[in-house]
């Protein structure tokens, strides 16, 4: 009996849905000890000497702790202590610690720093002319990892803004934003290929004429990312020696620069921030990786599926692949490795969209994501995954070629339809275009009952397809979650503070534990009902005939009870029960020490666990007195329902 079938059986009599609220930013007032500075901001990072704050306008500032007011210093110390106590739940993704910002705009002298065309001062801003090419050097040498922040405004409807970056200490590359009539973006050059021919190609206009946009370039040794107003438009990971600058550019190897082509731009902010600490410091993939290197097999005691690296140390998959497993249960296997990679945490889990993002640590390079979401009809694609072909055999990193059809809308969500034959187990794998960009995530395949199954929910599709795979009448049609939804999820994760990431990680663990306890509660209550002896059933029949008391528990009729008892005692069901109970005490002990749960919620989990054990003992010896049995069972049901409702409210 599959776990989805078991749940369907249990929740005919016992159902409670879990709905988790999204986390909100925690803005508070910060003041300096002399009272001269005050701001509303969220604490995103801190150490013993400085704090990094994010204001409501998304600007990030760094302040010395010694300059803060005493209440603010106390708040920071409490925050640091809480983070130290939560190291058990360290999610595997920690924001970069930025150094003191350098205001490059105030340092630029257009007369000395302009290399081509014309740049000039306009009050506190820098404006380029509409010449064919206007280039200006930024008066600051670059070493190591850094962040460059710009506020830019397009003055004309035409023209591109280009940003010269230094990667890996000495390798230069051009980040192009809105080039040409089609307003394309990307990096030039990668492996001597310009943006339309490499995996950073972005096909959608980025900047709006007459409106300020914040562009942030974050550069590490082997990784760079460019965002516009918080949305990723360019990302690349690899050996920095693959990056080059066109020979026509005569720019010192350690200098950044700005360039406009056939347009005019107003630059009102240029900030340089060195990255003092980063988890990507040790991340140095070498060579040119193959897409196969980044696709993984995901296994846990209750199932398996596929996933792929979509950013450094972030693995994308379907939510239904991992929803029944805690982070400790998940094992990730990459090609060519017999040992699994452990998962730090589940940082993003959207059951409605059937999308999840896991954090882990691996030197493997991620796949490029089509952040623009562009998928033309009739494009050739390849689908990669780890399908099950029957007899317990799983193909590792299988490749299926297909052709994109169109978008279909199901229950308020868009899906990419692809002509391709896939099998169960491929869920969570990538759909790649000819530039090896991820344009979708494999979610399901069509069968003779595909439309009906789609309406019933993605989480049950794979099990259903596995059972019906020999009876397909529409084999050869697959569905994928569009890349634009993957992009939003990745930006969501990378915008988290360490504290928020810890909360998200804990929420997934709580949800898994809650589901397991709910399933066990349903099993034990059902066991007690079907274990009622014949003498009790005769008493119940007499009470029902006399209509003496309508408040007594209704017993499941004898024949259905016999079938249910047989199903509950089957080896498959017992195996599932054993898996649900596995490490239960460890999970309960872990949440007791979590800084992300209230004491009320912790008490609720403990009380529910104890109540389930009491029901299990009672189910083994239900007695023969119907009225006493009914009173006890109604109390058990009431207690479980109340406790689950209280836990759900806390979650």
From TrEMBL:
Keywords: Hydrolase, Protease, Signal. Gene3D superfamilies: SLA1 homology domain 1, Trypsin-like serine proteases. Coiled coil: none annotated. Pfam families: SHD1 (PF03983), Trypsin_2 (PF13365). One of its GO terms (biological process) is proteolysis. GO terms for molecular function: cytoskeletal protein binding; identical protein binding; protein-macromolecule adaptor activity; serine-type endopeptidase activity; ubiquitin binding. Its EC number is 3.4.21.107. This is Putative periplasmic serine endoprotease DegP-like. It comes from Roseimaritima ulvae. The gene is degP1_1.
């Amino acid at each position: 009996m599959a776990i989805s079938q078991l749940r369907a059986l249990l929740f005919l009599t016992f159902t409670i849905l879990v709905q988790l609220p999204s986390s909100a930013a925690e803005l508070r007032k910060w003041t300096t000890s002399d009272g001269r500075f005050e701001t509303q901001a969220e604490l995103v990072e801190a150490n013993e000497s400085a704090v990094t704050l994010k204001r409501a306008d998304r600007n990030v500032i760094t302040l010395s702790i010694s300059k803060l007011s005493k209440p603010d210093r106390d708040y920071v110390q409490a925050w640091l202590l809480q983070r130290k106590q939560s190291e058990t739940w360290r999610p595997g993704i920690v924001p970069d610690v930025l150094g003191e910002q350098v205001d490059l705009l105030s340092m630029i002298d257009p007369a000395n720093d302009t290399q081509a065309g014309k740049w000039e001062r306009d009050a506190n801003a820098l404006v380029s002319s509409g010449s064919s090419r206007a280039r200006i050097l930024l008066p600051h040498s670059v070493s190591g990892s850094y962040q460059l922040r710009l506020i830019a405004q397009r003055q004309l409807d035409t023209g591109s803004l280009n940003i010269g970056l230094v990667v890996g200490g000495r390798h230069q590359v051009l980040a192009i934003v809105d080039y040409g009539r089609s307003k394309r973006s990307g990096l030039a050059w990668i492996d001597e290929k310009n943006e339309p021919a490499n995996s950073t190609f972005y096909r959608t206009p980025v900047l709006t004429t007459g409106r300020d946009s914040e562009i942030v370039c974050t550069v590490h040794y082997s990784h760079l990312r460019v965002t516009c107003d918080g949305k990723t438009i360019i990302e690349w990971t690899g050996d920095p020696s693959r990056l080059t600058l066109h020979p026509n550019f005569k720019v010192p190897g350690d200098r950044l620069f700005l360039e406009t082509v056939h347009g005019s731009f107003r630059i009102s902010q240029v900030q340089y921030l060195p990255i003092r600490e980063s988890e990507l410091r040790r991340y140095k993939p070498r060579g040119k990786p193959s897409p196969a290197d980044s696709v993984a097999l995901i296994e846990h005691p209750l199932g398996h599926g596929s996933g792929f690296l979509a950013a450094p140390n972030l693995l994308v998959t379907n939510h239904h692949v991992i929803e029944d497993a805690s982070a400790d249960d998940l094992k990730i296997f990459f090609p060519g490795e017999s040992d699994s990679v452990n998962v730090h945490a589940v940082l993003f889990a959207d059951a409605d969209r059937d999308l999840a993002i896991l954090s882990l640590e691996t030197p493997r390079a991620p796949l490029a994501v089509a952040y623009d979401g562009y998928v033309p009809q009739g494009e050739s694609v390849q689908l990669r995954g780890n399908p099950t072909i029957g007899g317990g055999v799983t193909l590792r990193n299988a490749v299926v070629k297909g052709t994109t059809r169109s978008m279909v809308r199901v229950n308020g969500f868009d899906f990419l339809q692809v002509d391709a034959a896939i099998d169960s187990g491929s869920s969570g794998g990538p759909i790649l275009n000819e530039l090896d960009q991820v344009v979708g995530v494999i979610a399901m395949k069509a069968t003779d009952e595909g439309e009906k199954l789609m309406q019933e929910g993605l989480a049950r599709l794979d099990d259903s397809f596995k059972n019906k795979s020999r009876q397909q009448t529409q084999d050869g049609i697959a569905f994928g979650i569009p890349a634009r939804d993957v992009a939003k999820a990745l930006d969501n994760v990378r915008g988290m503070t360490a504290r928020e990431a810890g909360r998200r990680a804990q929420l997934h663990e709580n949800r898994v534990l809650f589901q397991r306890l709910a399933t066990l509660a349903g099993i034990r209550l059902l066991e007690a009902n079907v274990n009622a002896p014949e003498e009790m059933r005769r008493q119940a029949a007499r009470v029902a005939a006399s209509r003496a008391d309508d408040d007594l528990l209704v017993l499941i009729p004898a024949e259905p009870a016999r079938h249910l008892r047989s199903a509950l005692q089957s080896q498959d069901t017992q195996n599932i029960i054993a898996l649900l109970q596995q490490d239960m005490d460890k999970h309960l002990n872990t949440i007791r020490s979590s800084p992300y749960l209230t004491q009320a919620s912790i008490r609720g989990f403990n009380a529910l666990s104890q109540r389930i054990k009491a029901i299990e003992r009672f189910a083994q010896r239900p007695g023969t007195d119907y009225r006493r049995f009914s009173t006890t069972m109604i109390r058990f049901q009431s207690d479980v329902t109340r406790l689950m409702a209280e836990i759900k409210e806390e979650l």
